[in-house]
Design goal:
mainly alpha, 5 helices
Amino acid sequence: MSQGFRSNVWDPVLIVAQIIALQCYFYLSLSVWLSVAGYICGFNMTLSHVFDYHTVGRTTEGWITVAVFTVNSLVGAVGLWLIICRAKKCLDFTLTMFAIHLVLCSAYGGIPHYVSWWVMNIASLVVVVLLGEYMCLRSELAAIPVTGSTSGKT
């Protein structure tokens, strides 16, 4: 296999590093948005708002958590664009990110059985995938400027 433009070389260290970076970006941005929302609305946002499915919906605080997850899905798409940079890898990395989130949520408070938690996370996953793929595709299809060409000039 040649080492040309956009060659596909399987690099497990890079893949694991990208998964870790994307997961950290997801939780860091979610924590910042939860802190800002908690400060503005006067709620005490805790770690359970990230990992416990009981805090989703049903109360004002729970609906704020849903709104924060929605905003964070937009920010997560930007993270996908910055860290992954390839449209065809967006679905894989997003599914991995949300699968890890499901495992961590299950370890924290048990397997989620609220429909609102599942709807919120599936909707967030869809937004991250679609917007992330769109942004990565726009970057991949951007025109490559060709300068310094003197063919045709005499």
